[in-house]
Amino acid sequence: MNQNADLWERYFSERSSRIKSSIIREILKITEKPDVISFAGGLPSPEMFPIREFEEAARYLIPKEGKKMLQYSATEGFPPLKKFLSEYMQKYGVPAEPENILLTNGSQQALDLIGRLFINEGDGVIVSGPTYLGALQAWDIYNPKYLSVDMDDDGMIVEQIEGYLKRGKVKFIYVLPNFHNPAGVTLPLERRKMIVELAEKYDCFIVEDDPYGELRFEGEDIPPLITMLKERVIYLSTFSKTLAPGLRLGWITAPEYVIKKFVQLKQGADLHTGTIVQYLAWDLCERGIFRAHVKKIREVYKRRRDLMLENMEKYFPEGIKWTKPQGGLFLWVILPEHIDTYQLLEKAVELKVAYVPGSPFYPDGRGKNTMRLNFSNATEENIVEGIKRLGELFKSVI
Questions:
Q1: Is residue 322 a part of any domain in this protein?
Q2: How far apart are CA 208 and CA 176, in angstroms?
Q3: Got the DSSP string for 70-88?
Q4: Are 130 and 251 in the same domain?
Q5: What is the mean pLDDT of each run of 10 residues along the chain (398 residues)?
Q6: Predicted pLDDT of residue 63
Q7: Residue 107 sits in the same domain as residue 210
Q8: Which domain CATH number covers 136?
Q9: Are residues 327 and 217 in the same domain?
Q10: What does the alpha-carbon distance between residue 188 and residue 174 come to, in Å, rounded to a whole number?
Q11: Which GO terms fall under biological process for this protein (predicted)?
């Protein structure tokens, strides 16, 4: 340990020992080299960003509203944007009035606020195995007891959820219903109803994390869980996967009393989400650009998903399974049990291709033979070549 670290370690809180780096962020450092084909990040396609539209919005708004845009604003969020989101979510049946919405610095801040407000040390939190790594990072510091539920092609296995609920007190169930990160699967309506019924029966609540719901390529939209039991569901979403992640703009939908508690916590964290980004996002929403842009990226991401699946069929050897997502940004690969994808990553990078090993997505470290692939942020040419390289690597170890 260097001298500086030796000095500061003495002052850190006990809970700081639970803080871990994100493996995805660490891998992205490796894959920044231009010759590495990366399927590692959860990145939207930068060439699809509505740059011209943002420029137009800034040119229009800053002369007109600049004094307000550059000023402090309300913790709850910019009222016209909240009104738009309230009306927009109505198309999915989400029962949200503006007072049920809090604008956040991405949905990652929403996850942190949930941990701060609800998790006591040792509280039972039901998650899927695998689950979103960012949620684990947000909550690890509060030291919950993660109760990991296996998944199949239809998402979380409900019988295992009830098994945990029967055995002891659970604070909440964390659900990624649409195009799950990292698994890519979607929870069907029947299972959603069952999870909602279980939450009511066993007196817990649900955190419904839905960053990808707008990115459906096929099939019909499935009603969110919040539409079935609004009193027991906290719903999260974000503009990161639809407009641009650099906005750092997400939102929480919850009962008004809970929103007031979140507001108090957010005041202590950052006072409010950036005023200028809320104005810009509202302008793009109000002018219909948001809806048109989502339609455009759906078409591009569908084409890339199809190409990745087609080439996996072509180049991957027998003994490997993968999910076939109906939307979103990711698919999940399961290799034979004797293969450790963490160890394999070094060889992959030598071949100039990268992925995210699966075990960090499990709170108990399982899934060493799994990996996540992202299809949204690679060109079609790179998808073909990258999957070919992975296929060669897999053939060499199977």
A1: yes
A2: 6
A3: TS---TT--HHHHHHHHHH
A4: yes
A5: 74 82 69 83 92 97 97 98 96 91 97 98 97 96 97 97 95 98 98 98 98 96 96 98 97 97 97 98 97 97 98 97 98 97 93 94 95 96 98 95
A6: 97
A7: yes
A8: 3.40.640.10
A9: no
A10: 16
A11: alpha-amino acid metabolic process
pLDDT recorded at residue 158: 97
Closest by alpha carbon to 27, among 341, 301, 389, 291? Answer: 341
Strands (E), 215-306: 233-238, 250-253
Return all residues near 154 (Cβ < 8 A) that are at least 6 apart: 185, 186, 187, 188, 191
The CATH number of the domain holding residue 309 is 3.90.1150.10
Can you tell me the distance from the alpha carbon of 387 to that of 316, in angstroms, rounded to the nearest whole number?
Answer: 8
Residue 150 lies in a domain: yes
Residues 282 and 305 in one domain: no
- Domain stop point among 272, 287, 302: 287
Contact assessment for residue 254 and residue 262, using Cβ atoms and an 8 Å cutoff: yes
- Is residue 188 one of the residues assigned to a domain? yes
Q: Is residue 62 part of a domain?
A: no
Residue 330 shares a structural domain with residue 239: no
At 353 the three-state DSSP class reads strand
CA-atom Rg of the chain in angstroms: 21
Check whether residue 114 and residue 257 sit in a common domain: yes
Range of the domain at 91: 71-287
CA pair distance 57, 332, nearest whole angstrom: 38
Same domain, 243 and 326: no
C-alpha to C-alpha distance for 352 and 138, rounded to whole angstroms: 31
Instruction: Select from 134, 133, 138, 198 the least CA-distant residue to 172.
Output: 198
Rounded Cα gap, residues 397 and 338, in angstroms: 10
Using CA atoms, how far apart are residues 284 and 282, in angstroms rounded to an integer?
5
**Which among 140, 174, 133 is positioned nearest to 24, based on CA atoms?**
133
Distance CA 103, CA 247 (A): 12
One domain, residues 274 and 182: yes
C-alpha pair distances (Å), 27 with each of 31, 33, 188, 347, 356: 6, 11, 33, 14, 7
The secondary structure element, H or E, covering residue 65 is: helix 51-69
Q: Where are the beta strands (DSSP E) in the chain?
A: 37-38, 101-104, 124-129, 145-152, 155-156, 172-175, 205-209, 233-238, 250-253, 321-322, 330-334, 353-354, 356-357, 370-374
